Amino acid sequence: MSDMKFTLPWTDAVTVSGQAIEKLVGAGDGDAALVYLYILRTRGAGTLEETGRALGRAQGDIAAAMTRLHKLGLIMFDTRRQEEQPAPALGDELPEYTAEEIRRGISGSSDFRDLVQEVQKALGKLLSSDDLARLYGMHDNLGLPPEVILHLVNYCIMCSRTRDGAPRMPTMRYIEKAAYTWERAGVFSLERAEALIKELEARRSASAEIRAALDIKDREMSASEQRYVDGWLAMGFKPDAVAIAYDRTLLNTGKLAWKYMDSIINNWHGKGLHTAEEILRGDAKRRPPGSAAKKQTAPEPEELRRMARLLNDL
After folding, report:
1. Cβ neighbour number for residue 312 with a 10 Å cutoff
2. Could you tell me if 171 and 223 lie in one domain?
3. The domain containing residue 68 runs over which residues?
């Protein structure tokens, strides 16, 4: 059999670069190699669900393989596509898993089995069947790798402990909702998780400063109020700039009027004024409220004489 030759049965061959082959062989990762070939074959058009179904693998395993391919520099995550996807409605739920499916998931993956133990340790309790189903759904349906899910759980615990200073643990439902956010943000690696957490912490810190500037004490902002603040931060406004808008809102309305303050900030945004320095410099010639009206009702002496002449001519 030393002279046996092999031929390919199809003519629509897929080209794999020599560099990619060296990386795949060096990694020694069969699942990653299989997923990479499928991505080449479909030109990256397949979803996690479609890829898992085609290759007979769980979505979590596909996501993990894609993360390893990303680390090897063989693929890039298309975050633009994920940002364009609408957020799931509040009523959306993960698929319902049978006890047998969860049992197979735990027994079939040592990584997921270890995840269950680590999550129970972090939360300080045994996970219920409902908790296990939600945890398994984050891995199987959302495609988050076990190490990313554990990072998510620990971050949710940290947020819950610091909120109002109350040392309470987050529910698995709360963690699941956060998992949707991470999945939409393309968080399928520890590096991306760390970057997102840093971004969220910066936003949370700025949000707390704005709440203090708005003199909101002893309570959290409502969902609607938080949406206003998140929008201002997304536009690039810092807490000191929002404080100026709040001051002008109080002067003109006598109260914290969110819609009015939002109109001020959007007006600045349209003018390209975002920092406190830019706002104060850009509004340096701004007249106090009512000054224009007073000027119009107080004609100059020359104007009065002109009007008198007109009256005499009648």
Report:
1. 7
2. no
3. 18-77
